[in-house]
Design brief:
DNA Polymerase III, Chain A, domain 2; 26 strands; alpha+beta
């Protein structure tokens, strides 16, 4: 293998794949990057056996070939170089030499045939999604995923595709987030998959700000096809919870409030909440809301009042301030509508005036209040 490439080009490609390398692994080969030169391109791959990232970059290839090399080492060396041309060459003993105008570097590699193969997608179904939509489907739901490994289904985002719509759902049992887009290009046949948050984080970082990405769902893996990059992710093989059963069908009361004001007020007042419970209390009146927090142990307390429109007379409810704050942070519209059944029942948050064909819904369980 022999090729010439600009430092910035290969460094950008390395940055995409090197973060997939696990910090610790019983399989030493997963600490390597698979480097393959062929035609006019160089392909780089990394895997932790759950996620595989593959990207390619243009280069002047003089001899085709492949090698497996220590991923973090090659990345650390190239990161410290300025943007100069680099010449890479490997021999039959799997040693890699690359040269710059500053000097020569030799790295002991391994047989590339021993590097784990890319997953094969059998009987896959494919959709094309605008990058903006895909980014929102991930970011506006993933924050409510569980970290409890005893409930693996809830540690990922549940994608539902079909009937001319695509939606994502995530929940940890205390809160839920759902985002849906209507799209006539989506297939009529239902496609479902649970994808890990780690894989989705890599997908977010790899996709361009504009354009489209392909999403292929197989029996055991999903594949995200982005500009010059492929991300394979092992699906979470579990049955997702019947989340629709916890969404209230009958609403008794509604509150309309400015998102930015509400977000800022909750953020300030929550600084005075108990660090263990993070409890914050909302006292809602027809034309305003009082937001209160108190830390009995340290004697701190705070209260703010901001305007709102409420269909009831007076309503008192408590929340985990961190959860409420996170939900408001993922609302892009100027106003948000909160829908209540009773103080001990799930509350719905719906952004107001979303673009046509978009639906966002969040659900938050309240904290039971002993006394107010």
């Amino acid at each position: 293998m022999k090729f010439k490439i600009a430092r910035d080009d290969i460094h950008e490609a390395l940055q995409k794949v090197v973060s997939v390398i696990p910090q610790r692994s019983t399989i030493s080969m997963t600490q390597n990057i698979y480097l393959k030169a062929e035609g006019k391109k160089v392909e780089l791959s990394a895997t932790d056996l759950e996620i595989t990232m593959v990207t390619e970059v243009e280069a002047k290839v003089q001899e085709s070939g492949a090698i497996a090399i220590p991923g973090r080492l090659i990345n650390d060396i190239i990161r410290e170089l300025p943007n100069v041309d680099l010449m890479f060459e490997s021999d039959e003993n799997f040693r890699l030499n690359f040269k710059s105008e500053f000097g020569d570097y030799n790295i002991a590699g391994e047989n590339p045939t021993e590097f784990p193969q890319k997953p094969k997608l059998d009987k896959f179904k494919e959709v094309t999604i605008a990058n903006e939509w895909l980014r929102n489907l991930i970011s506006k739901t993933m924050f409510t995923c569980s970290t409890d490994e005893l409930r693996p289904a809830l540690t990922g985002v549940y994608f539902e595709i079909g009937e001319q719509r695509i939606q994502s759902v995530a929940t940890d049992g205390h809160r839920l987030a759902l985002l849906k887009y209507q799209d006539e290009t989506m297939p009529e046949e239902d496609i479902t998959a649970i994808i890990s948050t780690r894989a989705l984080n890599f997908a977010q970082r790899s996709m361009e700000s504009e354009g489209n990405s392909g999403m292929l769902i197989g029996e055991k893996h999903a594949l995200f096809q982005m500009d010059g990059t492929q991300l394979y992710a092992r699906l979470i093989d579990e049955i997702y919870v019947e989340y629709s059963k916890v969404i209230p069908s009958e609403i008794n009361l509604e509150m309309l409030i400015n998102t930015s004001q509400f977000y800022s007020s909750v953020k300030r007042v929550s600084l005075f909440s108990n660090p263990i419970t993070s409890q914050i209390i909302l006292k809602i009146f027809k034309d305003h809301i009082d937001i209160q927090a108190e830390d009995v142990d340290y004697g701190g307390q705070a209260q703010e009042s901001i305007p709102c429109e409420f269909t009831g007379n007076e309503f008192v409810i408590g929340f985990n301030a961190r959860y409420l704050h996170d939900m408001l942070r993922h609302v892009d519209t100027p106003q948000i509508r909160m829908q209540f059944v009773r103080p001990d029942y799930a509350v719905l948050l719906r952004p107001v005036d979303l673009p046509e064909g978009e639906e966002q819904l969040m659900l938050l369980m309240p904290i039971r209040l002993e006394q107010v």
